[in-house]
Amino acid sequence: MESVRKNIRENWPVIIIITAVILVLAMNFLSLNTTYNPTPITTTYDSSWASPSLFTDRTLTGENRTLVIYGQDLITHTSRYLGPNGKVGSISNGMNCQNCHLSGGKKTWGNNYGAVASTYPRFRDRSGSIETIYKRVSDCFERSLNGKAPDSLSKEYKAIEAYIKWVGKDVPKGVTPKQTGIYKLPYLDRAADPIKGSIVYQGQCQRCHGQNGEGVLAINETEYEYPPLWGENSYNNGAGLYRLSRFAGFVYSNMPNNEASHEHPVLSIEDSWDVAAFVNSRPRPIKNLEKDWPDISKKPIDHPFGPYTDGFSEVQHKYGPYPPILARREEMKKSK
Question: What is the pTM of this model?
């Protein structure tokens, strides 16, 4: 026994090194075999949710606070850091995350981040896989910002994720609060009309977004004061707002900017659908979407690219009317 203790005393540096190597190998093995379990989404809605404030949150301190503040700046001024002339990199088209996620992703019914931390990881039919927050952020960069996914190990991505989690920090896991995301408008009993929508655009949108949807650059010329709604610098055909229901719900609750609110909309429901049809009829960047919706029966009714299982055309799926598609899908469910 004494000889064993003597050997340990004489060789303790070697023993420590071997032990450390074993621990590192074990940790790497575990990380390689990590699996993400989807978050069970409840039907509970909490109408009392309100976004947090950095001015009043005294629980956020030190490096975490610094990271969240940087994340907020990246969301509101994405192009300054990651746009075509970004001071950190160039992986986006010049728009800011805030152009689609209003008030830094904190505005009610403004496509906010309130339910992101509480509902991710989650299974999404579009990819046919369990998605993390990183996947969601990457999709925004690749689709809405028509760019490239950020490096998951970069300070910038870590700051964006920290900020998104902080915005939803008070929401229980699995809960989707009311007023998060985009309001779902009732469907019209007719097709949305791009021609009528062009008239709405001229009267309500053109003064900010331009006659040709080109947007207005800010004074610093590195980001947009008002984002382009079509053309080479706008979102591509894979973005969420390219679906009419998403665009219509977004503008109904929020546009014209600083004039409308969900409680006091400026546009009617019909105007919202029609202007969505007009904007999304205009040319924009094209993304390869062949890997989207591996189960085509799960495609939303306003997803504008076939094939479909319900027999309706791409034109009707894009512009409507949608009630006949819904009816057909209900019939198909009952016949199974």
Answer: 0.86
* Model confidence pLDDT, tens digit, residues 29-46: 443 344 556 665 544 444
Q: 3-class SS at 224?
A: strand
Please confirm whether the linkage preceding 256 is cis (ω < 30° from 0). yes
Please tell me the distance from the alpha carbon of residue 80 to that of residue 138, in angstroms, as a whole number: 18
Query: Could you please report the per-residue DSSP string of 104-173?
Result: HHTSTTSS-STTHHHH-SEEETTTTEEE-HHHHHHHIIIIIS-S-PPPTTSHHHHHHHHHHHHHTTTSPT
Neighbours of 252 (CB within 10 A): 24
Q: Where are the alpha helices (DSSP H) in the chain?
A: 2-32, 62-76, 78-82, 102-105, 116-119, 133-139, 155-167, 194-204, 206-209, 244-254, 269-279, 314-319, 323-335
Helix (H) or strand (E) segment spanning residue 225: strand 224-226
